[in-house]
Amino acid sequence: DTGVSQDPRHKITKRGQNVTFRCDPISEHNRLYWYRQTLGQGPEFLTYFQNEAQLEKSRLLSDRFSAERPKGSFSTLEIQRTEQGDSAMYLCASSYLALRDRAYSGANVLTFGAGSRLTVL
Amino acid sequence: GQQVMQIPQYQHVQEGEDFTTYCNSSTTLSNIQWYKQRPGGHPVFLIQLVKSGEVKKQKRLTFQFGEAKKNSSLHITATQTTDVGTYFCAGPGAAGNKLTFGGGTRVLVKP
User: What's the rounded Cα separation, in Å, for the pair B81 and B76?
Assistant: First the structure.
């Protein structure tokens, strides 16, 4: 296993275009997260999946953003009608949380991918 | 919602010196995690602290979890150029479903 993979690594697009990012998590991980990071800031939570179910979305997430994890393996993050403010690094992370650990919220250590950098012109 | 704050935002350190960076949460945490992001890289997990007052060491790095489980610190001794990067603390929400990251402390080392 080579860790968490993200594609593409860089995307330059014009305002108003749609973009899609893909994330392949560590195969035995059941949780997958999307974060956004802008220069000089910490990662900002966007959404997460437990297997194929999307369990939480940030209230800051615009309706233009949609994420899927159709078979509980890879995930896609689509941004429609991109705006210049969408320019950021989009980070995917995965983790494994066993049933026995769910009462213990501390078990969720994230492994991040290298990220997909989006530039909207 | 939960907020995690880190100070200082920037830390300029002379090589060989010690420094400490601090992390404070607006809510009590079940655990706290620390990550390091090298320039141009992605966050990489360093350590997790769970118990009140817990102290863990990784070579020259010492991590501490506060007694009230609302704050944490990272102390680096004899700073080296390999310590350059941004150090983030992160804590889980009440349901333990996501990590909220602080803004990070960016460490710059002067040789």
Answer: 12
Segments of chain A with pLDDT less than 50:
none
Return the CA Rg of chain A.
Answer: 14
Is B86 in contact with B103 (CB distance < 8 Å)? no
Q: How far apart are CA B88 and CA B41, in angstroms?
A: 13
- Residues of chain B falling short of pLDDT 50: none
Q: What is d(CA A20, CA B4) in angstroms, rounded to the nearest whole number? A: 30
Q: What is the pLDDT of residue B84?
A: 97
Structure tokens at B52: 């009140």
Three-state DSSP class for residue A17: coil
- Which residues in chain B are contacts of A106 at CB distance < 8 A? 30-31, 48, 50, 92, 96
Beta-carbon contacts below 8 Å between A and B: 65
| B4 vs A contacts (CB less than 8 Å) | 42
Predicted local distance difference test score (pLDDT) of residue A75: 97
Strands of the A19-24 sheet, one edge to the other: A5-7, A19-24, A75-79, A65-68
The pLDDT, as a whole number, for residue B97 is: 76
